[in-house]
Each structure stands twice: as C-alpha cells, then as structure tokens.
Amino acid sequence: MERPARRRICVNAASESKADAAWEFITFMTSPENQKFRAIEGGFLPPLDGLYDDPEILEKVPVVRLGEEAIKRARLRPVSPYYSYVSLVMAEQFNASLGNNKSPEAATRRLQGRMSEILEAAQG
Fold it and tell me: Distance between CA atoms of 3 and 10, rounded to whole angstroms?
C-alpha cells in the first residue's frame, strides 16, 4: 500500500547556535508520549501507527478508529496544473450551497458544468 506523504520537521542546515535545541524539540514533539498526549488532550490523530491500538486513546478518542481507516485509505492527489483552479471552483460552489445562496442541486449542476469546461480546456 502506498502511504501518503507526511509532514516533516526539519532543522536548517545553516543553523549553528540553535540546532541542538531544535533537535531536542523535534525529539519531544515526535515522541510516542507526546503523540499520545496530543491525541487524548487535543484530539489529534497520532502519526505513529502503534498508537492506534492504544487502549487509553481508543477509550478517550473513539474517532481514532475512523482516523486510522481514513489514513490507510488516503492517496496522494493527482498532480495537475489545474488543481488550484479546480479547488477554487469547488470551494465557490460548496460555499454557495452551505451559505444558502444556491441549492445543493444547483451548486452541483454548476460545478459539473465548470468541471467539464476545465476538462475540455485541459485536453486541449
């Protein structure tokens, strides 16, 4: 199974005086103990696979079960020069529908039409 890209915490290679402190912070933030704390107290999905079986997390944050499944099924979005435009068109229609400015059916029709236009333009 292909895993989705993960965010990384990095230290600037040119850093001199604060590099040790930065690494100490990275070690702290990525520790299993801190990930467990963030899951229980903040509701964050833990990046560490082993924490999805932790009984305390499962008891206090039941949504973790759904998050684990979502992470397993996550896929990278396709690379496209039209991605930003498609996202904007979708956001416009979603917001119009959620703001009661347009019915969901009308927003869906408009979105379908705009997506067809984008697809035609992409195919040249």
Answer: 20
Cα separation, 16 vs 14, in Å, equals 6
- 8-63 pLDDT, tens digit each: 777 777 777 677 788 888 889 889 999 999 999 998 888 888 899 999 999 999 98
- Indicate the DSSP class of residue 50: G
CA 75/CA 3 separation, integer angstroms: 7
* Spatial distance between the Cα atoms of 7 and 26, rounded to a whole number of angstroms: 12
Question: Is there a contact between 39 and 62 (Cβ–Cβ < 8 Å)?
Answer: no
Buried b / exposed e along 92-106 (16+ C-beta atoms within 10 A):
ebeebbeeeebeeee
Name the nearest CA neighbour of 25 among 15, 38, 34: 34
Residue 55 is encoded by which pair of tokens?
């009984």
- Cβ contacts of residue 7 below 8 Å, gap of 6+? none
Residues 6 or more apart whose CB falls under 8 angstroms from that of 110 comprise: 93, 102
DSSP 74: -
40 token code pair: 């229980």
